């Protein structure tokens, strides 16, 4: 009997070890083929069974498979917006990183701008065009904002290197007061100008997830300013797009651009998330040097020099009053001297735009966000955005938009059937000025000094 118990124990021992040896653990990370970003909550299932798992918020997974009597096991990976992929895991493998390729499904792209609820482009009642993150990254011009000009019915009007505005439906204006531009649901209009200042203080392409454009009247949903259309930009959610990204660009006209993005989810259940973005661009702008169109203050004025000579003896400047008192005393005894005076036409040469503007484009954009997820269907967030820029704007005159500053604050509560948000926008025009009238006023201010110096000489 004792031998029987011993044999039974040895049998169970070796049988258990054999079974344990046939359990195989496989782990790795799931990422996007193009962006290299991790794919959270993707489904990984053993083919032919119901056993599987989902990836965590960082795209990591760990799966235990039964390799009994199997030299290889097939896994099926599925994720919304991506092609279903099958991979083969050989017996003994413990690590396998998986890369998914986005699926191209025409006519099924989801938009929210047309009716403010998610729907496919075909279902939308408005004419909507959409640029996704891949198209934004691969735009031929290198600037996604300028790249919108390739879409149907969209024109980009460019006043300078740093100031681009969107026009639609055949309208062509440098002041698109009939277009509304949103970034994450916040109106990007400059309060002082009553229209968006392009992307001078807008979104960074490294953080953009999509751009939706309504090329047509959308006043019913977005107010009377949306007579021409709507541009709605959506940035990347820190839960779905965690990680650190850096982008550097350079080009002609001493163009230098740098962008940075950091996002991370944390907490026991990844309920908290933060995101920070920064962008800087600097370039030498195109020079407006037409000798006729860009020469300001080339005025002509007729002045009575005799009257001016008489008046300058009463100048508040003691030295000038003394000088012209002597000149008037001399002229009183030498009346012939007045023959060279009288009414004269004075031509001021004016100032070229290059003398009144430094012709430099600069833009700084900063952003910070804090998100909290109560559940998958209830989320709250606080967003802060800051922008500062310098560029030349062409309106009725030429304007130097110099160190304009833009601040936005937004709090947001999103549920399954509601969206509550409040935001505030403040603007400071900085050192902006009208270049044309600056030249004219400098010339006008210089004429009296020129006359007094001429007469004194």
The CATH topology name of the largest domain reads Ferric Hydroxamate Uptake Protein, Chain A, domain 1
Determine the structural class based on helices, strands and strand pairing. alpha+beta
Q: What CATH architecture of the largest domain do you see?
A: Beta Complex
Beta fraction: 35-45%
Spatial extent as radius of gyration: 35 Å
Roughly what percent helix?
A: 10-25%
User: What shape does the CA trace take?
Assistant: elongated
Number of strands: 30
Largest sheet, strands/sense/barrel: 8 strands, antiparallel
C-alpha termini separation:
136 Å
CATH superfamily name of the largest domain?
TonB-dependent receptor, plug domain
**What is the mean predicted local confidence, pLDDT?**
83
Indicate how many domains the architecture comprises: 2
CATH first level of the largest domain: Mainly Beta
The unreliable regions are 11-21, 121-125
Number of helices: 8
Provide keyphrases for this structure.
18% helix, 457 residues, elongated, eight-stranded antiparallel β-sheet, five-stranded mixed β-sheet, Ferric Hydroxamate Uptake Protein, Chain A, domain 1, Immunoglobulin-like, alpha+beta
In brief, what are we looking at here?
By secondary structure, this protein is α+β, with helices and mostly antiparallel strands. It is 18% helix and 43% strand. The longest helix has 22 residues.
SSE blueprint:
Elements: H1 2-21, E1 23-32, E2 43-46, E3 52-54, E4 60-66, E5 72-78, E6 85-90, E7 98-100, E8 110-111, E9 119-120, E10 128-132, H2 133-137, H3 144-147, E11 154-160, E12 163-168, E13 179-183, E14 186-187, E15 189-190, E16 195-196, E17 208-214, H4 219-222, E18 229-235, E19 243-251, E20 255-266, E21 272-284, E22 295-296, E23 300-304, H5 305-312, H6 318-333, E24 343-347, E25 351-352, H7 353-356, E26 360-375, E27 378-394, E28 398-414, E29 419-428, E30 433-434, H8 435-456
Parallel strand pairs: 1-7, 13-18
Antiparallel strand pairs: 1-4, 2-3, 2-5, 5-6, 8-9, 10-17, 11-12, 13-14, 15-16, 17-18, 19-20, 20-21, 21-26, 22-25, 23-24, 26-27, 27-28, 28-29, 28-30
